[in-house]
Amino acid sequence: xxxxxxxxxxxxxxxxxxxxxxVLNGYKVVRDAxxxxxxxxxxxxxxxxxxxxxxxxxxxxxxxGPVWRKQxxxxxxxLRNFGLGKLSLEPCILQGLDTIKSQLLxxxxxxxxxxxxxxxxxxxxxxxxxxxxxxxxxxxxEFRTLLNLMSRxxxxxxxxxxxxxxxxxxxxxxxxxxxxxxxxxxxDITVFLKRIxxxxxxxxxxxxxxxxxxxxxxxxxAQQAAGEPDTSFTEDYLFYIIGDLFIAGTDTTTNSVLWILxxxxxxxxxxxxxxxxxxxxxxxHRSPSMTDKGSxxxxxxxxxxxxxxxxxxxxxxxxxTSMDTEFCGYNxxxxxxxxxxxxxxxxxxxxxxxxxxxxxxxxLDSEGKLLRKEYFIPFxxxxxxxxxxxxxxxxxxxxxxxxxxxxxxxxxxxLAPPSLQGRFGLTLAPSPFTACVxxxxxx
Length: 443
Ligand code: HEM
Fold this sequence. Notes:
Number of helices: 15
Bound molecules: protoporphyrin IX containing FE
Strand order of the largest sheet: 1-2-7-4
Radius of gyration: 22 Å
Order of helices and strands: HEEHHHHHEHHHHHHHEEEEHHEEEE
Number of strands: 11
């Protein structure tokens, strides 16, 4: 799409079947639409394959309007109460890292380790703690099954013949192949999440809410007691909210951490410089804390540069116009699907010097201090900006710092360097790779 924009301009349209889509490219246009005209560009389209499964409830795919606003606000505030953006969340993130580290020590060998399962467990456990009040062990069969079901479900929706459901919705009900598998995946996830909600309902203590599910159940009861007639706070809605938090919060963060480690394997000199900075600021014994962030500009610049180049949600989540509008000289009708091409923003040569080059120093000034750039938008911008941005930033910083403090990651001997191409699903994941994990001496 970025290549097409070079031919057709920063705003161009195409049809996906009968659906008109407008692709927005480059920083200026994306910002103008999402930040300056939020009332027009913040709706979500009704994508049949997704609508069948989400019923357009939850947050991510909910239509722009008062229900979405209330649900998003409630979840954001509740997650903040449970530590989002605060130091109290650190132990929860670091606990998962201790498990990863001991696992890495056990599994390391000359052939290298596949880091993906360990990282994804640690990441999803953070959401599990905040939303469900429980953590799962890496080997927990039920938990592994849930994670596998979620990624399989996404893969089927985005990367299989099941995408045809978007053109012929009745295909969803076909009794064979990926269509049948998709329905089974959906049923299995439903059983898992409904059971968790039920357990919470039975043990709910209004004076001591343990997690987001408890808070939600209490809000539901409060609204019922107040006789709120059109409340959207229902157990059914809660189910979709939990699903959203998992789907939005697991793959995105896991893939970001994996991309960062992959770049460290491929750029050992940058890895060494980052480790030197960590050694000088934190040393090798104390766990990293968010309070160290300001003293680790290179580490942060490296994380941002990998996020810039890899853009794990490259086309954001589709938006939709909620009214007819004139934009950049074009008439765009109500109901048009809008694709904000975040990838093109991060490779926009009018705002980035040598955009294809990996160069963490672009985020540092001449004194080595961190430079914030408004055109760095891996979490999107505007009203639909990622709700988990603060949480994701904490996770990325603490996980990456802690892992590089303890280990050096390198390419297994004799293996060709892994590709930087990525695999496109709902998020852009690195192609599977293994890395040698060498413990650093504890000085
Ligand atoms: C590095 C990790 C992450 C990245 C790069 C990322 C990126 C994004 C992007 C690009 C969007 C779409 C913005 C748009 O539609 O314009 C989004 C939406 C969203 N993200 Fe994230 N995200 C990350 C982690 C998380 C986490 C950990 C959570 C969990 C709390 C989360 C929750 C959400 C939600 C709920 C939405 C939908 C917001 C809405 O429609 O109102 N994300 N994210």
